Amino acid sequence: MTSYTHPTAWAAIADHLHHLGTDVVFGLPGDDMALLGELERSDTTVVLCRDQRNALFMATGYALASGRPGVCVIGKGPALTNALTGVLEARSAAVPLILIADGTRLDRLGTGAFQELDQLTAVRPYVKWAARVDHAERLPGALEKAAALAVNGAPGPVYLELAEQIAAEPVTRSGPWRPATPQRPAPDPDALAATAARIAAAERPLLLVGGGARHRNTGRRIEQFAERIGAGLFSTASGRGTVAEDHPLHCGVSGLYTVAPMDALWREADLVIALGSRLEETATFGWPEDAAQLPVIQAVLGEESLTMERPGAHVLGDAGRIVDGWAGLLAGHRPADAWPARVRAARAALVQRAADRAEEAAKTVADGAVPVARVLAALDRAVPADRVLVQENGLQDMWSYFFPHWSLGSGGGSVVPSEQTPLGFGAAAAVGVRLAEPAGRPVVAVVGDGAFNLFRSELPTVADAGAAVLYVVLDNGGYGWLQSNLDRVSGTGSRFAFTRPRPTGTEGLTSAYGLGYRRVTDADELAGALADGWRQVAAGTTTVVEVAAALADTPPGMTASAGDFPEREGPQPDTP
């Protein structure tokens, strides 16, 4: 067997990244620039960030958009602790990610060495696997195991620490690098047959599509399966972009983002088929309180994603293979017409009610601010339909979670924060999404001003990376969600404040880095500003369109803030 010798450990890492097909590396390396020296001789794009957390967010956005591992390289000590929020998000979003960090040299451990930290203990709760490499001969196997664990099973982040003393040592491996292609396990035939029988017996099924079904909807197999069983089709927030939202059975986003009249479908359903969803709290918010009313068939890749809070059944395996297996077993199934007709009627009623709610919300917006519903409508007209919308989860930008105020056709995409919703994720992740997508595909980030302010230190990174993104910043003066909760507790006369009207300073920063900028305070100027912004982005220049938003301009169905979640209006009269 032929052996291969690399002159240094970092040379071996660079060669393994090339083997993986890694075209982008994100990060903020430590003082040892050896990896950058190795990558100088490759065509790999290196995005040098100002903050390690943002580097992880960018790598996560890249992985969500591409389905390939995101790769991030950082230093040691505080570099790792800065990165942990990003690692937490990657784990919660179940994305394949490889984090490589420096580590204190072996002979200095326990001596109070510069930036010494027990990094393995710090990072292990957030990753699938963590290892430290103290000896050069162990590096090839560790790299291969990291790649295999990141992409297989339920995907997730892995951590590899390189002890400083081996950085410059030669590394020999026996044989070529192993392939790191994900393996897609097939479901157990008995579990598949048992769950298919339960689906066939259901009269009013709902199909819930989660983030675990991303990149597994080849040939629109999921929509075709929904048609076969006559199921209403919902997405979780993280599952958006998997199915076409212009499909006549599509009903919007589940849980927290389901409003009347769609919420009635959850009270009437007799079975939920959860495809690639961990059934997080936001996805099940507002479901019938009596768990026995609504059995759930869970179809997930890994057993750690199962929840046993509701009756039902489960089948483990790749989402695409499970759907194909069910479709084959139910080839002769013909649903009754009544339930699909009920779903389509609820969808039609929602479209009408959404228009009414947007008009009602606009009445609460004072002069000098722009209704968020109008922002979304203008954005829809200004940017081509195959755009990817990347966003946060704040007070105003949540409007786009509520279908049909924002709708994804068969060509549209979506990247959102996971259940952790770290502030600033969407603003940073948009850079990774842009670098993962084909050059001509638009990427738009809709973010609140609080999140964007956390991200602003990365504007030079955006400029250096040439990642042209259209940022639509909804400016309500700070942290709108926190302010709305404070108002609930203290009224409007509190001596504390999370929002204040003040100049943002964004124009000066964007100008300094050669980026585009517009501020909109008049709804009549909105369409032109977004159209101009998109033209700049299409020509290769990141542009920020800052839109003044009113604190009272809350999403549909939300009557007040109430801690983590909003208070919602009660059930509405059923639609026919």
Automatic annotation (TrEMBL):
Ranges for domain Thiamine pyrophosphate enzyme TPP-binding: 420-546
Alphabetized Pfam families for the sequence: TPP_enzyme_C, TPP_enzyme_M, TPP_enzyme_N
Organism expressing this protein natively: Streptomyces decoyicus
Region entry Disordered, spans: 555-576
Start and end residues of each Thiamine pyrophosphate enzyme central domain: 193-323
All residue ranges annotated as the Thiamine pyrophosphate enzyme N-terminal TPP-binding domain in the record: 11-120
Name listed for the protein in its UniProt record: Thiamine pyrophosphate-binding protein
Chain intervals with Basic and acidic residues compositional bias: 565-576
Gene3D superfamilies reported for this sequence: 3.40.50.970, TPP-binding domain
Keyword set includes Cell cycle: no
Family classification: Belongs to the TPP enzyme family.
Keywords carried by this UniProt record: Thiamine pyrophosphate
